[in-house]
Amino acid sequence: MSQPVTPDPSQDGRFASGKVVEHLRGLILSGALAPGARIRQEEVAAELGSSRLPVREALQILRHQGLVRLKPNSGASVMPFDPAECDLIYRVREQVEPIVLAESVPHLTDQQVAELGDLQQQIAGTRDVEEFLDLDRRFHLLTYAGCPMESMLEMVERFWDTTQHYRRLYTRLLGDEGEADDAGWWIADAEHRLMLAAIREGDGAQAGHLLAGHVQRSRIRLADSSLER
């Protein structure tokens, strides 16, 4: 499944459920565990040097986080591609994330804005799918960091977790937009630049407006794809 994790001697070879959650969540978000992949409790327990109890507890936590599906007599599996789910979550994101961004912008520090500039430059310079996913996630979550409502930040991060496999697909589709292979990347970069400019000007409303279009374009592009690549 992945590289074995060395058990913590202080736990006598038993991992708490939180450690199992962290391990499996990392595999799911990285794509090492693909959408629809089975997760066998005994294999995870053996890999981590734990009993099956913390694995079962971890799977329940991941189910509540929207990353794992549990079915009686079928066991656990990574949430599969689901066009209806994708459309719904992205529609919710179109409404929620611009509000969070607008609330965040006035509270972002100069250091955070400078870091956003660095991230934007790194995003513009990559065509590697996994690197883009990491940088893009860091960029957007940092733009929300000034929002004073922690519960909203937690909700947004959950949206990003549950749509990670859709974002991976979307990133692979970037080069397919228009006639030029680089067109999709250019559009994504332009949208990031415009959002960053609005943030630098302290215009949360404009940043939120741009973000809504950014998320909407992703939703439409995914709807036009097969969601099976």
What is the fold's blueprint, element by element?
Elements: H1 17-30, E1 38-39, H2 41-48, H3 52-64, E2 68-71, E3 75-78, H4 83-104, H5 110-124, H6 129-143, H7 150-162, H8 164-173, H9 183-200, H10 204-224
Antiparallel strand pairs: 1-3, 2-3
Helix pairs in contact: 1-3, 2-3, 4-7, 4-10, 5-6, 5-9, 6-8, 9-10
Domain HTH gntR-type: 14-81
Pfam families: FCD (PF07729), GntR (PF00392)
Protein name: DNA-binding transcriptional regulator, GntR family
Overall number of strands: 3
Strands side by side in the biggest sheet: 1-3-2
Number of structurally distinct domains: 2
Considering the protein shown, what is the CATH homologous superfamily of the largest domain?
A: GntR ligand-binding domain-like
Distance between the termini: 21 Å
Mean of all residue-level pLDDT scores: 87
**Count of alpha/pi helices:** 10
CATH topology annotation of the largest domain: Four Helix Bundle (Hemerythrin (Met), subunit A)
- CATH class call of the largest domain: Mainly Alpha
Biggest β-sheet description: 3 strands, antiparallel
Strand content: under 5%
The chain-level structural class is mainly alpha
Evaluate the radius of gyration: 19 Å
Domain HTH gntR-type: 14-81
GO molecular function, one term: DNA-binding transcription factor activity
Pfam families: FCD (PF07729), GntR (PF00392)
Protein name: DNA-binding transcriptional regulator, GntR family
